[in-house]
Specification:
The structure is a homodimer of 157-residue chains. Chain A has 157 residues and is mostly helical. Chain A has seven helices and two strands. Chain A has helices at 5-19, 28-35, 39-51, 76-83, 108-124, 127-135, 149-156; strands at 55-58, 64-67. The first copy, chain A, has a two-stranded antiparallel sheet with strand order 1-2. In chain A, a hairpin with a 5-residue loop joins strand 1 (55-58) and strand 2. The longest helix of chain A is centred in the C-terminal third of the chain and has 17 residues, at 108-124. Chain A binds chain B through residues 1-3, 5, 8, 11-12, 15, 88, 91, 93-99, 103-108, 110-111, 114, 117-118, 121, 125, 130, 133-134, 139-144, 151, 154-155, and chain B through 1-3, 5, 8, 11-12, 15, 88, 91, 93-99, 102-108, 110-111, 114, 117-118, 121, 125, 130, 133-134, 139-144, 148, 151. The structure holds a DNA duplex (30 and 30 nucleotides).
Chain lengths: 157, 157
DNA sequence: ACAAATTAGGATAAACTTCTCCTCAAGACG
DNA sequence: CGTCTTGAGGAGAAGTTTATCCTAATTTGT
């Protein structure tokens, strides 16, 4: 798997918030319910996204989370910097501590250009773009519910 | 990280064996020592590579592991099928259980071509090729030891 | 002031990965 | 046959990621 569960939840949550009316806080409970992920665990992730300056949080009634100003322009690489930690973009495929052009593992030369494509892709996908893609109804943010029901509904629509 | 430690050790070990004289068993101890990985853990991995039909194992004096006939042609995707399990090649970036052209996550369309490049790369790298790359001395299979010593020695040789 | 709702944060449990240790089985060699 | 060497395999320790629970702090509305 290329991304940790934490990162997957974080990305899903951020996209979901980006699809919601701007500036109106969304409850952790709502997000977790919609995404079908453990609420208490998601709460921790939301906390780290706040510390990473992507979200504002509000307590009490009318509380919840909403995107910080300009955060719709955040790209996935920035999100992953928070959830996977730095170094995510640099690790060697074979796990070598040092693997650069000067002194490399046997995969390095071939892997490098592909890794750069992956990184470029992550950088070009902003929350805004992903949210719009979901809003068209052609893409899903969550697993299919009971069965294939909703897939059929989508095709009809 | 894209590969588990187990997969990294497995690949390193296989490449190392592929650089050694063919048909002459290599000791687990030697491999672990060379790669600087925990011997007991590597032994488990070697076991699973045997069960995956990539290696033969021999017990007792003159024992050790060597590549099965034709195993030099094994590509990394085949190795990963053993160490990461099937489904490694199919997982959705966002973790959705079902994510196909018909019903996809918002990353799917962009991610698919890149994933295929990654898979193609893994498929084109065989143990044979990687072993040869290491044998030229221009690529390393292990971390630099104390300092940069061995890198210099390799360049001289 | 009080009650209700919500996030913050610490402690800890559960699950998985990585790693270790010990005993057993098998082969080589005297 | 006995001994040494090596991998096989089971049990479980250690570390990390994922998940849960409880209490405290903060905000809103009555």
């Amino acid at each position: 798997m290329i991304l940790s569960r934490t990162s997957q939840y974080a990305i899903q949550a951020l996209i979901f918030i980006a699809t919601q009316p701007k500036g109106q806080p969304v409850l952790n409970r709502e997000i977790a319910g919609y995404l079908n992920v453990p609420p208490a665990y998601l709460a921790k992730i939301m906390q780290s996204l706040c510390k990473g300056n992507l979200l504002y949080s509000f307590r009490g009634r009318l509380g919840g989370f909403c995107l910080r100003e300009g955060a719709e322009k955040t790209d996935l690489l920035q999100v992953l910097a928070i959830t996977e930690g730095p170094g995510f973009a640099q690790d060697c495929v074979l796990g070598l501590k040092v693997c650069s052009d000067a002194t490399a593992c046997p995969m390095h030369a071939k892997w490098k250009p592909i890794k750069q494509k992956v990184l470029a892709l992550l950088q070009e996908q902003t929350l805004e773009k992903l949210a719009r893609a979901v809003q068209t109804g052609r893409y899903r943010l969550t697993d299919l519910p009971g069965g294939v029901l909703s897939a059929h509904r989508l095709q009809q629509a």
